[in-house]
């Protein structure tokens, strides 16, 4: 619900996070999940496992992405934006998938998924392509 609301409210807003700043967002979200996994390890192993899976997924996506101004990698930056929206949905469903009962831990996953959705929706995924002249502009 939170992720859907965040998506609806931010999808049409101006994109003001530049593509070269987006890796910071990705690594911060991944780091927060990996830190949460260590925090939850003694309290609830299911929550720790979910955090570890989400952190590894966001880190893997970041490592495979060709960010603007960096070397070419397996996933284009534009595709990264689409995959990140899907990853946000998966993160939001993690409490149900792992049957996490504690409301506090459920909120962690839902809030982080909402934050990732907002940051993804506010990122300029297409701007680096607009710097190249189009064929129609050359004639």
Summarize the structure.
The chain is mostly helical. Helices cover 66% and strands 3% of the residues. Helix 2 runs antiparallel to helix 5, helix 3 runs antiparallel to helix 4 and helix 4 (77-97) packs antiparallel against helix 5 (103-121).
Describe this structure in words.
The protein is mostly helical and 139 residues long. A two-stranded parallel sheet has the order 1-2. It is 66% helix and 3% strand.
List keywords for this structure.
single chain, 139 residues, mainly alpha, two-stranded parallel ribbon, 6 helices, 66% helix, 3% strand, globular
Beginning-to-end CA distance, first to last residue = 49 Å
The radius of gyration computed from the alpha-carbon positions, rounded to a whole number of angstroms, is 17 Å
* Average pLDDT level: 83
Strand count, sense and barrel status of the largest sheet are: 2 strands, parallel
Class inferred from helices and paired strands: mainly alpha
Count of discrete alpha- or pi-helical segments spanning 4 or more residues: 6
Number of strands: 2
Helix residue percentage: 55-70%
- Secondary-structure element pattern, one letter each: HHHEEHHH
Task: Estimate the strand proportion.
Answer: under 5%
Give the low-pLDDT segments. 128-139
Shape type:
globular
């Amino acid at each position: 619900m939170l992720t859907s609301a965040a998506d609806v409210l931010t999808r049409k807003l101006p994109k003001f996070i530049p593509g070269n700043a987006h890796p910071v967002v990705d690594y911060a979200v991944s780091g927060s999940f990996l830190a949460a996994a260590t925090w939850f390890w003694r309290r609830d192993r299911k929550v720790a496992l979910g955090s570890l899976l989400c952190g590894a997924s966001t880190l893997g996506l970041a490592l495979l992405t060709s960010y603007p101004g960096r070397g070419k990698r397996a996933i284009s930056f534009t595709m990264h934006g689409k995959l990140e929206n899907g990853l946000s949905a998966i993160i939001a469903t993690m409490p149900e998938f792992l049957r996490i009962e504690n409301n506090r831990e459920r909120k962690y996953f839902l809030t982080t998924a909402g934050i990732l959705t907002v940051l993804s929706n506010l990122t300029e995924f297409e701007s680096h392509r607009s710097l190249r002249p189009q064929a129609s502009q050359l004639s």
